[in-house]
Amino acid sequence: MADAPVAVPVADPVDKQAERIALAFARLLRGMGLDIPVTRAVSFAQALSLVGLTRREPVYWAGRATLLGRPEDAPSYDKAFAAFWEGRLPFGFKSTPSKLELTIVMDSEEEGAGEEGEEVQPTGPALVVRWSNQEVLRHKDFSAYTHAEFEEARRLMADIRLHGALKRSFRRRPCRKTDGRPDMRRTVRRSLRAGGEPMRRAFTRAGQRPRRIVLICDVSGSMEPYSRALVRFLHAAVVGRGRIEAFALGTRLTRITRELSSRDPDAALAKAARAVTDWSGGTRLGEGLRAFNDMWAVRGMARGAVVVLLSDGWDRGDPARLAEQMQRLHRVAYKIVWVNPLKASPGYAPVAGGMAAALPYVDEFVEGHSLDSLERLAEVIKR
Predict the structure, then answer these.
(1) How far is CA 138 from the centre of its chain?
(2) 283 by DSSP, 3-state: which?
(3) How far apart (Å, rounded) are the C-alpha atoms in residues 217 and 142?
């Protein structure tokens, strides 16, 4: 006789009302100084969905079993439970409702933010609200930056490091595992210490090194709101001392790696501006990529490299020529990443002639309008 099928219980979804009440009670406990992680609040919400909200004892012990991590937190829990669930103060004392005046105090993460002006000390309960200027800048569009915000963004960009995806290296490295290739030279050298007996064998494995990164930034007139910030990003990448090459592309292609290698950002940008004679001019992406392919790419710079194009895709040239040059570049590059600052705009679609022609040969199509998007770009380049 075949065994009867065993019914496997399926957990019911968390009730929405129970979830809201559980989160509110957990927030009250945190305000009383108890350590209530999010996982315990979720467990409490699931327990409330099972025991219901109509009886006191199941609710009390469900919260005590899921929310408390230390026995000494029980008195505080009892007080909070009485005030929250029973609608009264602890120990049965009655109270008359009164208005609670709450003072909101603005606190900044920036050093010296409260030095100017006299600091006002709240006399009653206060809610401290913290704001971070750096967090605002990370998500703010470059086109809306002020001069002071550009200077702050430059300091934040200095922390961004670009590392290309790893590739197999011809240079082998010693390894301790026996699954590597035997290293005869090191094995013989070690055997000389033991009278010619190979007592300790040596092994090697194939090494890895990061791929070269090639950054090509569009500095035409249509990219004017973003080119200043993106060139600063190129400077931060070049001075990071990686295998990085930088180019500026407008009506012609200009290599600016040497100009951006200076540690002084203002001096580096000034040298780059003098080297690029067509700054804020027209856009000829197809001609510029043809020059890059003929002079640099097929000669080895882009072979097996990560090529990053920072452009909005607007091109005055023939889209067919751009598609042809993108196809040539795609044959030799490891990966092509296109960074378009307009991609973050609501309702954006890559319908521009140049962007539509290049997109079939792009491996990663990402945004590039803010610091946060550039940090995500660094992760895309690394993988």
Answers:
(1) 10
(2) coil
(3) 15
Distance between start and end Cα atoms, the chain: 56
How many other C-beta atoms can be found within 10 angstroms of the C-beta atom of residue 278? 19
CB neighbours of residue 134 within 10 Å: 13
Contact 371, 344 (CB under 8 A): no
Beta-carbon contacts of residue 351 (< 8 Å; ≥ 6 apart): none
Indicate if the alpha-carbon torsion angle 72, 78, 80, 81 is positive or negative.
Answer: positive
pLDDT band at 353 (very low <50, low <70, confident <90, very high): confident
Long-range (24+ apart) CB contacts under 8 A made by 34-41 are 34/67, 34/68, 34/73, 34/76, 34/77, 35/69, 36/67, 40/66, 40/67, 40/69, 41/67
Tokens of 130: 């913290």
d(CA 278, CA 94): 79
Domain ranges of the chain: 16-92, 157-162+211-382, 171-207
In terms of phi and psi (left: phi > 0; alpha: psi -120 to 50; beta: otherwise), the region of 135 is alpha
* SS3 assignment, position 81: helix
Q: How many residues does the chain have?
A: 383
pLDDT tens column, 258-308: 999 988 888 888 899 889 888 888 888 999 999 999 999 878 899 999 999
Output the furthest CA–CA distance in the chain (Å, rounded). 95
Integer-rounded Cα Rg, in Å, for the chain is 31
Yes or no: say if 164 and 306 are a contact pair by the CB < 8 Å rule. yes
CATH superfamily of 157-162+211-382: von Willebrand factor, type A domain (3.40.50.410)
The reply to whether the predicted model has a pTM over 0.85 is: no
Distance CA 204, CA 190 (A): 15
Identify whether the C-beta of residue 18 lies closer than 8 Å to the C-beta of residue 53: yes
Q: Which residue has the tokens 């019914």?
A: 7
Closest by CA to 286, choosing from 308, 313, 256, 254, is: 313
| 248 close to 217: Cβ distance less than 8 angstroms | yes
Q: Which of 190, 216, 211 is nearest to 202 (CA)?
A: 190
